[in-house]
Amino acid sequence: MKNIFLMITMVLWSATGLANDHFITDAAFRQTVENTFQAKLNLIGKQFYELKGLTPTTEEREALQFLYAYMPLADATDYTTAFYLGNVRMSFKARQEMPWGQKTPELLFRHFVLPMRVNNENLDSARIVLYEELKQRVKGMSMKDAILEINHWCHEHVTYHPSDARTLSPLACMKNALGRCGEESTFTVAMLRTVGIPAQQVYTPRWAHTDDNHAWVEAWADGTWYFLGACEPEAVLNLGWFNAPASRAMLMHTRAFGDYRGPEEVVLKTSNFTEINLIDNYAKTALVNFTVLDQAGKPVEGARVDFKIYNYAEFYTAVSKYTDKQGKTFLTSGLGDLLVWASKDGHYGYAKASFGKDREVTIQINRSHATDVKENAFPIDMLTIVPPPENVKLPEVTDEQNARNKARFAEEDSIRKAYEHTFWPYQKDREVSEEVNKLLTTARGNWRTILAFLQKHEDRQQRAIELLKSLSDKDLRDIKMEILEDNMNAPSNQLCPRVEAEMIIAPFKQYFAKAFSKTEEKKFQANPAELVRWTRDHIRLNPDNKALRIPQTPIGVWRSRMTDSRSRDIFFVDLARSLNIEAREDVITGKVQYKQGGKWIDVDFEATEQLSAPQGTLVLNYEPTKLLDNPKYYSHFSISEINNGRTYLLNFEEGQVDMGGGTSWANTFKNGAKLDEGTYMLTTGTRLANGSVLVNNQIFNIRREQTTTLDLKMRAADHEVAIIGNFDSESKFVKDGKEVSLLSQTGRGYFVLGILGVGQEPTNHALNDIAKVKKEFDEWGRPFVLLFESEADARKFNLKEFGELPKNTLFGIDRDGSIKKQIVSQMKLSNDRLLPIFIIGDTFNRVVFSSQGYTIGLGEQLRKVINKL
């Protein structure tokens, strides 16, 4: 009897052990993953999944298959199986060793711990390199405390700095100690996953009440998801400077890796990710049902429905869905307005949807190229877009918790600054030219690579410098020596390795220089259209047009002969440049072009002949006013091309905060700008103080060798500036160690007063925005009084980071916080910790403008109010 019981026990133990050998315990889902994995290998080629010599366990092999099944093409072709297996093993190690590892549900571990990709960054081995350090950092902590502690660690290594849209890898971000919000959140998610904590990057595609967007982090602990500002540690979870703006958001998303089957509302499923809607976690919401009909009033199946938020003077597609057989879809959103644009087979139509007011919205797709070409310009469509109201909720934080967190924050700043003192400006031990000095300073943590490269090529210094100057600031900060060497030593004179925002992680130029015979090479150089044909005939396109389009390396495209349209464009430009053919992706239109006979020729992979698109001229008439003398692109207006029923923004030059410039009415459209023949939409917007926007949309045509003239009409608010509160202009602050009154420093009249959050993203944005409008503020001539909360903040503040502020800017310290408390009380602001705070007041104690927290375009808002005073 005892032996029978022992045998039964061993059988049960064995069965349990076999079950535990599986990475996915649900047999049906495991089979789904296996089928998807096999389909992926059939698509890209089995040579990209190589287990020889790796000996994975059953669990490891299934985890690898799960990753390969859903990863984008680029990840499958540009990284080795050994690379993924190393990261898989480290994830399993964290699950085994961390105290919460066995408590984390399989679903969350699979989708929010195991995957390496967070955004569009290039992948690295951060979790392998940093696991032991992070493990010790959170030793003995609860899961919630570990989340807070990891964020403190992240702040020690990275702080906010605006930059281009390309996302640095976690290790590159750490190496340079800087990152925009997308990089900070990618970095923090990667670090949380390193210690086995489920984490996801959450983003609002665009704010509704102001321009710009934002990304942060959600992390799971003991059954609950919490949010936090990445690299911006607070004393408690569910607290960040963005609590208030998040309550006014329309949409909040995250992309769960693979076929995620959780409880959240699914916005979109693709072959790579499941996009889920998290807006209910942050704001009051409502659901609207949408029906798409054709010209005859019949339901349209498979129509693409783009939900657009007004932001940066365009209607930006925040999310896309597709209609079912009844022509229906739905969306849950914050309680504001979206423009909803439906299209299929070149037909389109749009309507405004007001969430919280509308329950059903019908869109008829009754426009197309055939209807659009009938008029040069159609009547203006006037819309008023209203964002959700603020409904902020803040967790409780004691004064003791806040003080302790501030002390840690300052200590972490000093740790990071000590590391930054290892960069070139502080290690300069030789005389170099101003040009080289700028390159080495810009390279930050990567300066040794740049210096070594220059030293290696002292005999060809001019070519080396020209190569480095062709790179963006961010490229200088993460480019590797092998990439520089590849371009330096290639026979081509087309030095730049960058086409757009792709990852440059593998050399290609010298390889492609030898890929063709000399006869073929000369044929391509004589007629680059032949290279277009070669690319079309030899590179297959992924039939899945909804797949995530992370750019493949050119070598990945070459080896797989399979890619998407974006990577094919990059591949063609890189291939052409490798053969010493000038080629580019046009910044404004996104078109791929090559140069022949001194002219840029548009690339059309489907055409039998390559031609330049016929062009016409757009002239915009505008009558300057005191309030707005020169409307700016992205701030006041934008132009989108309508192609096959969808809109594509023309990406004109933005300019730099510290250098001015950028596209405007006066410098680009006043005297006429060349545009390709086609149909376009001109959008103008006037943002009001409450966040609402007065919008004009006008559809028009550009015809070959003709001029289209439109009036650039900016709608104005009917009301003037109103008195909105009171503030005591005799209030005291500390300046140069002495206590002085505001009145004594400003003299009689209006002034701008700001309370700053040093090192915080909202304050950085605000000061950059004020610097943009310096000229107008200098002409106004009234003071800007900017106050720090403490002497420590004043010491940390680096004025050079924000370009030139108005010449009448005064700095001081609100030592006891009395000025901040008065403003918060008088203006009935939501709380006293959300910075920056700005007011426009006068010495008769009247306030005519107030702003708190994150507000893009603050300089423009201040200017508009000032011009009405």
What number is the mean pLDDT?
92
* Beta fraction: 15-25%
Computed structural class = alpha+beta
Instruction: Indicate the low-confidence ranges by residue numbers.
Output: 1-19, 656-660
Number of DSSP E strands: 36
Q: What gyration radius follows from the Cα positions, in whole Å?
A: 29 Å
The biggest sheet, with number of strands, parallel, antiparallel or mixed sense and barrel status, is: 6 strands, mixed
Helicity range: 25-40%
Summarize the structure.
By secondary structure, the protein is α+β, with helices and mostly antiparallel strands. It is 35% helix and 23% strand.
Which labels suit this protein?
869 residues, alpha+beta, Immunoglobulin-like, six-stranded mixed beta sheet, five-stranded antiparallel beta sheet, disordered N terminus
Q: How would you describe this structure to a colleague?
A:
- With 869 residues, the chain is α+β, with helices and mostly antiparallel strands.
- Among the domains are: 22-267, no CATH class; 284-385, Carboxypeptidase-like, regulatory domain (Immunoglobulin-like); 426-489, no CATH class; 725-868, Glutaredoxin (3-Layer(aba) Sandwich), CATH 3.40.30.10.
- The protein is 35% helix and 23% strand.
- The protein contains 31 helices and 36 strands.
- The strands form eleven sheets. A six-stranded mixed β-sheet has the order 29-36-35-32-33-34.
- Helix 29 (791-796) links the parallel strand 33 (784-788) and strand 34 (809-813).
- Helix 2 (27-44) packs across helix 3.
- It is globular and about 80 Å long.
- The protein starts with a helix and ends with a helix.
- Mean pLDDT is 92; it is low at 1-19 and 656-660.
